[in-house]
Amino acid sequence: MSSRAWSTQSTGDSRKYVDSVIKRPSQATLKKLFHARTPIRYFYWALHINEHTLIRAKRRIRELIIRHLDISKLYKDLPQSRLDFLKREILLDAELSFLMQYEDGWAVDVLVRNLYYQRYRLVKEKLKLIRNAKCDRRQRLFTSHSCVSPKLRLSARRTRTSTSSRVALLSTRLDSVTPSLLRFHPAIVQAGLCTDEHLHELFRMLPTSRDTFMSKALGTKKSTLFERVMVMDILEQMDNEQL
After folding, report:
1. Were 25 and a residue from 7, 29, 76, 210 both cysteine, which residue would form a disulfide, CB within 3.0 to 4.6 Å?
2. Measured distance CA(86)–CA(65) in Å, rounded
3. How many CB atoms lie under 10 A from the CB of residue 126?
4. Residue among 18, 4, 40, 2 nearest 97 (CA)
5. Distance between CA atoms of 121 and 85, rounded to whole angstroms?
6. Beta strand segments in 9-160, E
């Protein structure tokens, strides 16, 4: 191919040539762009991009990362084949076709690596998507059973809320997600989280203290980051619920 790059259009397979290619920068510049603490203005300069375009691109790439990568793994542990697949998906995405102007798609490597430093945020967003999907399924199930007597539904609701302890429902909550997290219930109780008071105190701690508690309770070798975040998310929802 000539020194001009092509970008895929949103309709059909039509392609157009971009007059100039943005050359791959030096290794020192790439290393700085890969760093998690690099100021955002440095990206504007290196990628020749404005704030609006960068925000829009990062939002879309974040969605594709969540869809195509196993975000429970560290970046260095991700198979190169999956990273290559993700890069192709990004370059072929209609919203991101402008990234084709970067030599060898180097801007994609930079943005994916930079976003992956925020893996905790990616995990939280994936959990939100999972919860929303479950809410949709529950709503459809509720609609399909709308013929059930309102009195029976009210009775069932009273039965479910008759217990005075949130922690008593923890095993049920852990088992309600997919995949099930029920196997962590004994470890959580053994670590000392046995009452509603303990649950409330947990979320009065500093975030670093909560993370330490969860890592020690579940074990970093016996649980993944994704599982620990899911458990913490369930506990936080329970703490916010009204009895």
Report:
1. 29
2. 7
3. 18
4. 18
5. 22
6. 15-18
